[in-house]
Every structure is written in structure tokens, then in C-alpha cells.
Design brief:
single chain; DUF1684; about 30% strand; 1 helix; two-stranded antiparallel ribbon; DUF1684 domain-containing protein; four-stranded antiparallel sheet; mainly beta; about 190 residues
Length: about 190
């Protein structure tokens, strides 16, 4: 996999995306922030950008995807298909954080309309530094994945679902297979 990666350019682009999202949350009519709270909204909380959490993942494609039922924040159930399992290594400079190989399942609705892969997950920051219902990532590979394909999984893009900000949203909760026994201090933070 060719990956010409410039950490300074990556950091600038990540900060730009975060600024755009803050602007959307503050001003857009479809913001999950309730209208009466938007005037006091001063931006989302984030972990510092860290390129150690931009990892290369190896894909295992499920040719006959199994349905997975996920509970939602309002007590409903939704069905997704487990289409790919992504395996990645974490090797970090901080000796207090565990390294190792981890897996995350990626899902699509049963009738995907060219939608990105949906990766809900929990980690050891969940309920403490991040939202108690878990965080999400989306991944839009530029080609159909095959077994062994490598792709970049940037955990710095992990985000808090809209239901954390307003009860009008109903969000899937990460299934147990996507509960990581590791601390991922990357992406969005959320004060409980």
C-alpha cells in the first residue's frame, strides 16, 4: 500500500475538519445542539491530533455477511451486516498505553446504497473521557475490498454520535465485538 504521508499536512487538514464541524454544530439548522444551547456552544472537545492513531488496517472481507442486531439509545434494535473485519496494530510511544493487535468489525445496512462502512466502537475512554454510548467512524474505501487489502484507519476521526447532544436522535450502540480493551485517546472527547 502506497501511503505518502506528511504529518504536518495531515494535522492541518484534521484541524480544518474540526473547525468546519464546530461551525456546523454552532450555526446549522440541522445541528444536534438544541437551538437554545447554541449561543453558549464554544466548540467540541478533542484529543490532540496524534499520528500514532492513524494506523494501517488489514481487511478480512465477509463474502456472505452475517446480520448483526444493534441496540439503540432509545431501546430499539437495528440490523446491520458485518461486511469487513479490520485488523490493526497499535505501537505507541507512551509506556502506560498497551500496544498490540486489535480488530474492529465494519458494517453496512442490509441494502447499502454506496454508503461508507460504519464502525461503532467502545474503548477504555468510553464513559470517562468519551461518550458513554461509544464513538463512531466511517470509512469509504475507494474500491471494493478484498481479503488482505490494506487501508488507513485514522482513529483521530472518531466522533461522538448526535444522540449525545439531544434525545431527539436515536443511535446504534456498538456491539460487544467492537469493545476494545485498550485506551484510544484520539478523536472527539465528551464531557459526561
Amino acid at each position: 500500500m502506497s501511503d505518502s504521508f506528511d504529518v504536518d499536512t495531515w494535522r492541518v487538514k484534521l484541524e480544518e475538519k474540526r473547525a468546519e464541524k464546530d461551525e456546523f454544530f454552532a450555526d446549522h439548522p440541522q445541528s444536534p445542539i438544541p437551538p437554545e444551547e447554541r449561543e453558549d456552544f464554544s466548540g467540541l472537545e478533542y484529543f490532540e491530533p496524534n499520528a500514532e492513531y492513524r494506523v494501517h488496517a488489514s481487511a478480512t472481507v465477509h463474502d456472505d455477511p452475517e446480520p448483526v442486531t444493534m441496540d439503540t439509545t432509545t431501546g430499539r434494535e437495528v440490523r446491520y451486516l458485518r461486511v469487513v473485519t479490520l485488523s490493526f496494530n497499535l505501537e505507541r510511544d507512551d509506556p502506560d498505553l498497551a500496544d498490540g493487535t486489535y480488530e474492529l468489525a465494519a458494517y453496512q445496512m442490509e441494502r447499502p446504497e454506496e454508503e461508507p462502512l460504519f464502525i461503532p466502537f467502545r474503548d477504555k475512554t468510553t464513559g470517562q473521557q468519551t461518550y458513554g454510548g461509544g464513538r463512531y467512524m466511517e470509512l469509504a474505501p475507494d474500491q471494493d475490498l478484498e481479503d488482505g487489502d490494506e487501508l488507513v484507519l485514522d482513529l483521530n476521526l472518531a466522533y461522538t454520535p448526535f444522540c449525545a447532544y439531544s434525545e431527539t436522535f436515536d443511535c446504534p450502540l456498538p456491539p460487544e465485538e467492537n469493545w476494545l480493551e485498550v485506551t484510544i485517546p484520539a478523536g472527539e472527547r465528551f464531557e459526561q
